[in-house]
């Protein structure tokens, strides 16, 4: 399901009220206050998609602050996590006594069941993900220690997450993205990877420890997708577990090691094919970059996964951007 709203064309006196109503309906009930000069109109645009149980929005607006208050929570407290990735401008997220100052590329997580505030001091643009808390494989008590914590967009696992989210923002209107539940699941898994890197699991129950280990393994796979020789044995050895146990972990998650590795490689190829900065790279070069060195295999696997050949996928992406 698509959503789009703009305050352009609305009488100035009604613009901010419309914005407050829009963000409360799209996310959870929020209170808002405008920044800037009193009596001036408010520019705001909100557009997004529902990818299964994950909502993805891009919000661009003038300076303002939104607050999730205890009063609003007492009326209804749906159990969601939200993630804000700063695309342009700056923001300050506050929750649980912590404060995260976000610059472009940075992101932070927050919980809709507890009060928070998000302040934008100037014109800004933000990508917002909202998803059920149980989609994260990490214990909620441990995730609570990471709300309103800044994850830098330029380095490490958080840099991978940031890059993926930026690509998602660029393609939010692409028909190929609409309704992609698998894409949403992968994005949340990547977020779990970044969170797991910040946590200490010494006192986590066995079941949660397995989930955390799987997240770390996925992080390792993500960092080694370019290695065409990467095997289940390599992955197991890097985490000091048997190959049999590795296969069991992925089986419990409803997939296989090779299937997960293949899917992530194909998805990264898809991102490159849709990237205007890489339009001069051949499909074979892009495939080899992500460990898929056999061009004929890449073509078959890509069409099976996405319903389009790599060349068709690239052409449709170009046509969509030209609209």
Automatic annotation (TrEMBL):
The keyword DNA-binding applies. InterPro entries: AraC-bd_2, AraC_XylS_family_regulators, Homeodomain-like_sf, HTH_AraC. SMART domains: HTH_ARAC (SM00342). Keywords: DNA-binding, Transcription, Transcription regulation. It comes from the Bacteria. Pfam families: AraC_binding_2, HTH_18. The keyword Transcription regulation applies. GO terms for molecular function: DNA-binding transcription factor activity; sequence-specific DNA binding. Residues 215-316 form the HTH araC/xylS-type domain. PANTHER family: ARAC SUBFAMILY (PTHR46796:SF6), HTH-TYPE TRANSCRIPTIONAL ACTIVATOR RHAS-RELATED (PTHR46796). This is AraC family transcriptional regulator. It comes from Saccharothrix carnea.
């Amino acid at each position: 399901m698509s959503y789009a709203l703009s305050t352009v064309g609305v009488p100035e006196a009604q613009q901010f009220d419309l914005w407050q109503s829009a963000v409360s309906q799209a996310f959870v009930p929020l209170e808002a206050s405008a920044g800037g000069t009193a009596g001036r109109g408010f520019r705001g645009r909100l557009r997004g998609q529902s990818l299964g149980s994950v909502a993805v929005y891009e919000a661009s607006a003038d300076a303002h602050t939104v607050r999730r208050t205890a009063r609003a929570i007492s009326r209804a407290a749906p159990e969601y996590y939200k993630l804000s990735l700063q695309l342009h401008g700056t923001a300050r997220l506050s929750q649980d006594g912590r404060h995260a100052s976000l610059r472009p590329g940075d992101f932070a997580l927050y919980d809709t069941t507890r009060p928070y505030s998000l302040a934008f001091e100037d014109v800004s643009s933000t990508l917002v993900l909202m998803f059920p808390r149980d989609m994260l494989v990490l214990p909620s008590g441990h995730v609570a220690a990471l709300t309103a914590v800044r994850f830098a967009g330029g380095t490490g696992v958080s840099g991978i997450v940031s890059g993926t989210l930026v690509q998602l923002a660029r393609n939010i209107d692409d028909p190929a993205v609409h309704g992609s539940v698998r894409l949403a699941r992968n994005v949340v898994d990547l977020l779990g990877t970044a969170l797991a890197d910040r946590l200490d699991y010494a006192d986590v129950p066995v079941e949660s420890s397995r989930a955390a280990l799987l997240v770390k393994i996925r992080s390792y796979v993500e960092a080694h997708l370019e290695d065409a020789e990467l095997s289940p044995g390599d992955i197991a050895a890097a985490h000091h577990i048997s190959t049999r146990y590795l296969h069991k972990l992925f089986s419990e998650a409803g997939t296989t090691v090779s299937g997960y590795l293949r899917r992530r490689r194909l998805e990264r190829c898809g991102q490159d094919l849709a990237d205007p900065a890489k339009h001069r790279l051949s499909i074979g070069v892009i495939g080899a970059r992500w460990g898929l060195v056999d061009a004929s295999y890449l073509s078959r696997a890509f069409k099976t996964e996405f319903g389009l050949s790599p060349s068709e996928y690239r052409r449709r992406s170009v046509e969509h951007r030209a609209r």
